[in-house]
Specification:
Elements: E1 22-23, E2 34-39, H1 42-59, E3 64-68, H2 77-81, E4 91-95, H3 103-113, E5 120-126, H4 133-141, E6 145-149, H5 155-168, H6 175-185, H7 189-202, H8 209-215, H9 224-231, H10 236-248, H11 253-271, H12 279-286, H13 290-299, H14 305-325, H15 329-343
Parallel strand pairs: 2-5, 2-6, 3-4, 4-5
Antiparallel strand pairs: 1-6
Pfam family, one: DNA_pol3_delta
GO biological process, one term: DNA-templated DNA replication
Protein name: DNA polymerase III subunit delta
């Protein structure tokens, strides 16, 4: 899935390129014969791929893009995909999780790297580390354009990411506001990037703590996050009351849908986590602050896997409604809140 974050300073369809995705090749040409994206941060890996695809289609709108998993890259597949075409069409071949490729597939790739074709751009996504290191070394030896996409485990990295997102979007953010945003949302880069883009789209001037509070942390009596907390614990009437109050005092609708989505996703993440893990370890694994782990543990009772799926669909429909897909977005939000609260009691 491509990130859909756009704004000033972003390339259409690419998303905003955070400083944390570091390009290490001297000649940073996205149309280089080989791009090697190394790391485990999904958002940055997706952006590395998307930058190449956008650059290729800027040259040739009919560029053929093949996105392959290790299972799809069987012996002979690469030779078939890279065989010369009568029409000399440009191609982008993306190989994900390259560290998991079979020995035969690695052999084919190494052979190709010795004589790549001019109209083909190969993108290898590799987690780094010892597994599949032979291919990693071969790609570097072949002169790959390398993009580092490290997993962000330190709070300072996430703060740097948020500042970079705002800078790329052409806006300033105060240090306090950046910290408040990370505290409210956690360490999921997709959600952080989405929140940065939403704030830039809906506000003007420097983003400060007051702006972040209005959207994501704000006044306890009228925030989307309180609505979400009530909904995911099945308290329908209270959640609807808070939602109507939030709407009456002018809380931004996208901020409310964001809070609902965050609440349901947190339930889903924790539900699939190993039982008995301590909050600190879960915080690192799931990208949530420890205090949020404790809160979600209290909220998760009554949820089933099907309930999470139903709730996520309801949030997606509400999000589309508030962005113009429905004549009455407030009603769409009320419907989503009711559905989420019912889903919170779906476990028999």
């Amino acid at each position: 899935m491509w990130p859909d974050t756009e704004g000033p300073g972003c390339h259409s369809g690419v998303g905003c390129w955070g400083a944390m995705a570091r390009k290490t090749a001297q000649d940073d040409d996205p149309l280089a014969a080989l791009t090697l994206a190394v790391g485990q941060e999904d958002l940055l890996l997706d952006r590395a791929v998307r930058e190449v695809v956008v650059a290729a289609r800027a040259v040739d709108a009919d560029t053929d893009v093949r996105d392959l998993t290790p299972e799809a890259l069987q012996p002979g597949t690469l030779a078939e995909l890279t065989s010369p075409s009568l029409f000399a069409e440009r191609k982008v071949i993306v190989v994900r999780n390259a560290q998991d490729l079979s020995a035969d597939a690695v052999k084919d790739l190494k052979a190709y790297l010795t004589a790549p074709y001019e109209e083909i751009t190969l993108v290898l996504l590799h987690a780094g580390g010892a597994k599949g290191k032979a291919l990693l070394d071969a790609a570097r030896k072949a002169g790959a354009r390398e993009v580092a996409c490290p997993k962000m485990t330190k709070p300072a990295d996430r703060l740097a990411f948020v500042r970079s997102e705002f800078r790329t979007l052409g806006r300033s953010v105060t240090p306090e506001a950046a910290q408040a945003l990370v505290d409210a949302i956690g360490s999921d880069l997709r959600e952080l990037a989405s929140a940065c883009a939403q704030l830039v789209a809906d506000t003007e001037g420097t983003v400060d703590v007051a702006v972040v509070a209005r959207y994501y942390t704000g006044r306890a009596e009228a925030t989307g996050f309180e609505v979400a907390d009530l909904a995911v614990t099945g308290r329908t009437a209270e959640a609807l009351e808070r939602l109507r109050w939030a709407l009456s005092v002018g809380q931004p609708l996208p901020g409310i849908t964001f809070a609902l989505a965050s609440g349901v996703r947190a339930i889903g993440k924790l539900a699939s986590a190993p039982r008995g893990a301590n909050p600190g370890q879960l915080a690192r694994d799931l990208g949530m602050p420890p205090w949020k782990i404790d809160r979600v543990r209290q909220q998760i009772r009554g949820w089933s896997a099907e309930g999470v799926s139903v709730a996520l669909r309801a949030v997606a429909e509400a999000d589309a409604a508030v962005k113009g897909a429905a004549a009455d977005p407030a009603y769409a939000l009320e419907k989503a809140v009711v559905t989420i609260a019912q889903a919170a009691r779906s476990r028999a």
